[in-house]
Specification:
- A hairpin with a 4-residue loop joins strand 1 and strand 2.
- The chain has two domains: 150 residues, Cytochrome c-like domain (Cytochrome Bc1 Complex, Chain D, domain 2, Orthogonal Bundle), CATH 1.10.760; 88 residues, Cytochrome Bc1 Complex, Chain D, domain 2.
- The protein has 284 residues and is mainly alpha-helical.
- It is built from eleven helices and two strands, in the order H-H-H-H-H-E-E-H-H-H-H-H-H.
- Helices cover 33% and strands 2% of the residues.
- The chain has a two-stranded antiparallel ribbon.
- Bound molecules: heme C (2 copies).
- One heme C binds next to helix 4, helix 9 and helix 10.
Length: 284
């Protein structure tokens, strides 16, 4: 688990992302004991992606810029493949540049790789399509799609400063573990107190934040539909701009509440983990 300080600097690269950006917590507001920043300070130095502000011109630059737009505004540039109201940046915060939210930086050094859920080698393009089908509750882009190539190009470009062979230590979401079974009833109370303000009392989102359940949210086969994944994301990043302020138990409880609410099904889930290895908290 690690926590890399990240201010609003990145956000200013695209004016329309600024709305989602609120100042990072002051030192005193951050949960004291388990802030891992102290343990792995070297990550701050290693995590050195280029800013989308510096995407070059020319044909290659255009492709990278399109990839950035698809990630930051999937609703507009990712059609007709998005099936809900989310954008990639809803979860891959700051257009994939946030090291606490499944960053895209360095992924080009890790793919192709074997994935047990699919039981095959998946390319980076395949992995992007998994999120289109599940997190976006939409459809996979055709293999020869220029939009798919654009997202790959953007991730390649973000990965340029990461050396070949790097293990990409900031990969994924910093994981927390539960000390007791999650309590969705307490989670509902946490939700009312700390989340409703932006996500709405019905969880369907507001001008300030996207939906958390219902027809316009991620489907049950998405990573975020697993309580441990949602809890870890919430711990590090929510409320937006005030990551690391809820306790681990609160994060698990509110994640259990959110993931107990209705959301779209994914019929092809029947083919997941054909050789076993399904995580205990997969909701199917
Ligand atoms: C509802 C949240 C959500 C949305 C929206 C979403 N993703 Fe993901 N994505 C995840 C989660 C969770 C993971 C797994 C992270 C982990 O395992 O720590 C993931 C993983 C990935 C990975 C692999 C990361 C790795 O470390 O190997 C890629 C690539 C990816 N997503 C691309 C996208 C793209 C492109 C979009 C937009 C089309 C998108 N995602 C939208 C939640 C989301
Ligand atoms: C200050 C407003 C705000 C508050 C309060 C807030 N969120 Fe969010 N949340 C957001 C925004 C904005 C996003 C999308 C990220 C982006 O666009 O940068 C988001 C995204 C999410 C996501 C990603 C998946 C999805 O469907 O959107 C989850 C899960 C989430 N929030 C849970 C929570 C929980 C749980 C709480 C309460 C502990 C909370 N949020 C409080 C603004 C907020």
């Amino acid at each position: 688990m690690r926590h890399i300080a990240l201010g609003c600097l990145l956000m200013t690269v695209a004016g329309w992302l600024v709305a989602g950006c609120v100042p990072p917590p002051k030192a005193g507001q951050v949960a004291e004991s388990n802030d891992p920043a102290k343990k792995e300070p070297a990550l701050d130095a290693l995590f050195a992606p280029p800013s989308p502000e510096s995407i070059p011109g020319g044909q290659r630059g255009e492709q990278i810029r399109l990839g950035f737009k698809i990630v930051a505004n999937t609703q507009e540039y990712g059609q007709p493949y998005a099936g809900n109201k989310l954008n990639c940046t809803t979860c891959h915060l700051d257009a994939g540049l946030n090291p606490n939210a499944a960053s895209f930086v360095g992924l080009s050094r890790l793919y192709p790789e074997y994935r047990a859920r699919a039981d095959r080698q998946v390319s980076l393009a395949d992995r992007i399509n998994e999120c289109f089908e599940r997190s976006l509750n939409g459809t996979a882009l055709p293999p020869d799609s220029s939009k798919l190539a654009a997202v790959v190009a953007y991730i390649d470009w973000l990965s340029q400063n990461v050396p070949q062979g790097s293990a990409v230590p900031w990969r994924g979401i910093p994981r927390i573990t539960s000390t007791r079974p999650p309590d969705a009833v307490n989670g509902k109370a946490v939700f009312a107190k700390k989340c409703v303000f932006c996500h709405g009392s019905d969880g369907q989102g507001t001008m300030a934040a996207p939906p958390l359940w219902g027809p316009d949210s991620y489907n049950i086969a998405a990573g975020m539909a697993r309580v441990s994944v949602a809890a870890s994301f919430i711990k590090a990043n929510m409320p937006r701009g005030w990551g690391w302020t809820v306790t681990d138990d609160e994060a698990f409880d509110v994640a259990a509440f959110i993931n107990s609410q209705p959301r779209p099904d994914f019929p092809a889930k029947a083919y997941d983990w054909p050789k076993g290895g399904k995580p205990a908290d997969a909701p199917y």
